[in-house]
Amino acid sequence: MELTGEQRDLRDAVRGLLERQQRHAPAAPDPAGSAPDDERAYDRSLWQRLCGEIGVAGLAIPERYGGAGAGPVETHIVMEELGRNLTPSPLLGSAVLAAQALLASGDTEACQRLLPAIADGSAIAALAWTAQAGHWDPGQAAYAARPTSPGWVLSGEAHHVLDGDVADVLLAAGSTPDGIAVFEVDPGHRGVTRCAVTTMDTTRRLAVMRLDEVAGRLIGNHPGPAALARARDLACIALSAEQVGAAQRALELTVAYTKVRVQFGRPIGSFQALQHRMADLHVLVESARALSYAAASAAAEGAPGTGLRAAAAHAYCSEALIRMAGQMIQLHGATGITWEHDAHRYFKRAHGAGQLFGQPAGHIARVAAAVIDSASGDPHRPAGPA
After folding, report:
1. Cβ proximity of 140 and 121 under 8 Å
2. Which CATH architecture group holds 125-223?
3. Residue 169: what are its φ and ψ, rounded to 5°?
4. Higher-confidence residue: 26 or 6?
5. Measured between alpha carbons, how far is 244 from 246 in angstroms, rounded to an integer?
6. Taking the model in full, what pTM does it have?
7. 3 state SS of 208
8. What are phi and psi of 197, to 5 degrees?
9. Cα–Cα distance between 316 and 337 in angstroms, integer?
10. According to the CATH classification, is domain 226-375 in 1.10.10.10?
11. Average pLDDT over residues 28-40
12. What are the distances in angstroms from CA 221 to CA 41, 139, 172, 290?
């Protein structure tokens, strides 16, 4: 996909800011993880600069709600840059997943009330949705919601909540007698328990959210599953962009290493076997980027089949990053397994990100089911079981 001039400027602005921040960043925490949890999550000053100077949190939020009125492609560009250096930020969970669930709900009052603060980065939003299995199924919710007079009360436990322990705005998916719905919950309610969990990828902040008879405010006039499905698909696309950025940077670091690592009197990058391997990795990364951008473009245009493109992008980009991170460690040799080198960080990001918003196998199953359904509707296809 060819970027416009404005999109290239956005990419360069984000990359430049991240590079400047990285040059002046303090030393990373030690392997024992003695740094406070808040320091290992994300740099608040960097997040404020990304929002204040570039407006990243409001890119895909309409102007009437305080955003820039751009779309999934612009968010994709930012996520790809954040992925390159594994920059921790609440962009994915707050400005994509939670904000898009709000927009898809069709609740104008809630959007006017909540989105401006999310768009300028002054408030972090979280969507508590999935149970411990992590299926992210729009037809299932972690909480049980029962009607009271007035309103609703929610109870249950949600897992894998992005930035849930620090969220200022909390949305919760609940199962009602009439189906799945989305509710706004006060994160400061005495019945809310928020516990940060230890993750393999320490740059990704996840939490377990327990609700015990907590009052919830119903969000939206549209069916909850539709809003959740839309938010999940856009989050999958944004996550695939992050994975592409990480894979690209891992490839660049690996190629650079093979040019300076000498073995048998010559750089190892001069050996044909390694050249072929890196050429294959280049094709893998570029094909992942093409699929990811195709999904983002489809979402921006409102094209039919966006959900299937999002599923395909999630599955393929997850596998691409896992393979690239594994090859990065192997091609770096012993250096690749040291704490001081970044290879282990890309490896952890690859395996952690691959489990967000549903496992790759689940998304492949969605695509396969759609292909089978399409084929079964072909009048030239022989009759038989699907």
Report:
1. no
2. Beta Barrel (2.40)
3. -120, 130
4. 6
5. 5
6. 0.91
7. strand
8. -110, 155
9. 25
10. no
11. 41
12. 35, 17, 16, 36
